[in-house]
């Protein structure tokens, strides 16, 4: 595994464990609209290293483990870190925009950062096969990518659990854009797949505000 990837996983585990045991620590650094709008902008970053429980943490770290090396090994460590942090902040920014009038809205998790890494890896290998529990058959990565966004939209609409579903979407957008900015040759290599993966993102940006009225 890439050393930076190991450090990120370790940081998520250790900081999340601190939050499991110390609610005041979790409350101080989690994503919360009211606190952020009152000037505590660091929450947009720190919330990405906190999780609500071991299952939430395990799922995000397993996804990061699976896809992180793909990005780091193909694009380089510096680009991997830029995509990870950039996607985390993009997820927080999208959440802040979508929930801007919900002063008590709060969430935690590395979902935004991980979503960006997942989308970046799919841009690199759109036809790779993924075996996802409980499905017994492999599915193409680009189908997983689109499905992941659809589920995140549903989770954001229903506000399922204390998890940043809107951060999934913002993170995926961040990973998609940052990867193409850093490596525009990906577009010339996989034009059709890039355009396909961009469809749900474009539709979300155009019609995302109408989700709350559905």
UniProtKB/TrEMBL annotation:
One of its GO terms (cellular component) is membrane. InterPro entries: Peptidase_S54_rhomboid_dom (IPR022764), Rhomboid-like_sf (IPR035952), Rhomboid_protease_S54 (IPR050925). Residues 40-184 form the Peptidase S54 rhomboid domain. It is found in: Membrane. Pfam families: Rhomboid. The keyword Repeat does not apply. GO terms for biological process: proteolysis. It is a multi-pass membrane protein. The chain crosses the membrane at residues 6-23, 44-65, 77-96, 103-125, 131-154, 166-186, 192-208. GO terms for molecular function: serine-type endopeptidase activity. The keyword Secreted does not apply. Keywords: Hydrolase, Membrane, Protease, Transmembrane, Transmembrane helix. Belongs to the peptidase S54 family. This is Rhomboid family intramembrane serine protease. It comes from Polaribacter pacificus.
């Amino acid at each position: 595994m890439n050393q930076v990837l190991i450090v990120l996983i370790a940081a998520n585990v250790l900081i999340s464990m601190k939050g499991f045991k110390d609610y005041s620590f979790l409350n101080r650094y989690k994503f919360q609209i009211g606190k952020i709008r009152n000037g505590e902008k660091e929450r947009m970053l720190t919330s990405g290293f906190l999780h609500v429980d071991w299952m939430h943490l395990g799922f995000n770290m397993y996804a990061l483990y699976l896809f992180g090396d793909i990005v780091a090994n193909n694009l380089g460590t510096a680009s991997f870190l830029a995509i990870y942090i950039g996607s985390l902040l993009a997820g927080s920014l999208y959440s802040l925009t979508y929930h801007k009038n919900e002063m008590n809205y709060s969430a935690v998790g590395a979902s935004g950062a991980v979503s960006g890494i997942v989308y970046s890896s799919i841009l690199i290998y759109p036809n790779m096969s993924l075996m996802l529990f409980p499905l017994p058959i492999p599915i193409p990565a680009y189908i997983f990518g689109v499905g992941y966004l659809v589920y995140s939209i549903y989770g954001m609409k229903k506000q399922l659990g204390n998890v940043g579903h809107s951060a999934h979407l913002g993170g995926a957008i961040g990973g998609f854009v940052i990867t193409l900015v850093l490596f525009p040759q990906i577009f010339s290599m996989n034009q059709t797949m890039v355009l396909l993966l961009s469809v749900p993102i474009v539709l979300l940006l155009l019609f995302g505000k109408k989700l709350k009225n559905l």
